[in-house]
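Box S1 | Example of a co-folding query
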Amino acid sequence: MSNLDIAAAGQQYIMNTYGRYPLSFVRGQGSLLWDADGKAYLDFVGGIAVCILGHCHPQLVKTLHQQAETLWHISNLYWIEPQVKAAARLVQGSGLDKVFFCNSGAEANEAAIKLARKYFYRQGQPDRNHIITFLQSFHGRTLAAVTATGQLKYQEGFKPLPAGFHYAEFNNLMSVKTIIDDQTAAILVEPVQGEGGIRPADPQFLQGLRELCDQAGILLIFDEVQCGMGRTGSLFAYQHYGIKPDIVTIAKGLGGGFPIGAMLSSDKAASGFAPGDHASTFGGNPLGTAVAEQVLSIIDDPAFLQRVETAGQSLMGKLKALKDGRIVEVRGQGLMVGIELSIEVADLIKSCIGKGLLLVGAGSHVVRMVPPLTVSDEEIEQAVAIFAQALQESATA
Ligand SMILES: Cc1ncc(COP(=O)(O)O)c(C=O)c1O
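Box S1 (continued) | Returned holo structure for pyridoxal-5'-phosphate
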């Protein structure tokens, strides 16, 4: 089938929840993708910050094959060896103590919200159940995660929303201090806001949140669904800031393209859950956790993470060198890069796609670059050259 045939059939049978390009990819290798018409693309979307080792990484393919021939699913009625091994790696890499596996970022955040509430319930403080989150944040599409998300456009039409969520301003500690009270159970924040426009938190802000939480005896939750798993040049983004959360959520890159999410927590916070309090049929299944363990064995390596940092600096340096008055700011950390423009970016992204470079926006005015963490220097050069050309053409169009 051609791109257009697949798109037409998709429109007939698939529910209309996504604005999609009339493209269908049939094969991938490293940072490259091929569409159904045989055209090649450089992939700086990576399945939206998911395919951190590129497409069809040989070690991940091998692990998935081996696990598929051994055991697919058994449920959490039993201990699952790949799950235990993946959890051990996450504990070692995070400095936290316990892991709960699920299947997506939204589910990981649901788990974190439930854990925070249950923790205080078990402490005899059932009214301490409010969660502070931030404007321009994004935490997922389930009812609680979309309520945690500080953007009205995602909540419209879904009332009644769960109660107990309050929104502060990102990078504004004072705005948190004015909301925090004796009903606050937790603060939930992305160390680098992703969908909200690739905005890294100021170090003083995150450190200030940690202090506030310690003083108030409440839990600090980091949503690292997008910025975790090596994306910023450290295994977890919070490791740049010299602080540790009580709970952290991850998904996207954890399976390198295989669907899996996780919530990690300190022993103290984890004491909020007892058997029966939370569960997921598929969470931590052998296939996902075998792949996740392999992903972690590759990325939790100082040389790998250092290379992400230098590749990110090179990408941002080249973008900052572009001379175009419409570029408001180039920002990010590691290979999580945003280019804010004074114009809406949808047409510019379309033009790049036409030239064989896949990009995605983060809000209406920010172009996002989240390539595989294995992207080469040449691929970075090519991507910036295509982006620069599209930008130049859009100025004269
Ligand atoms: C920071 C953050 N949290 C949560 C989510 C939701 O993840 P999922 O789509 O896997 O539910 C996303 C997705 O973009 C995200 O960027």
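The pocket of pyridoxal-5'-phosphate is lined by residues 104-106, 109, 138-140, 190, 194-195, 223, 225-226, 251 (CB under 6 Å). The chain has two domains: 3-56+302-396, 71-299.
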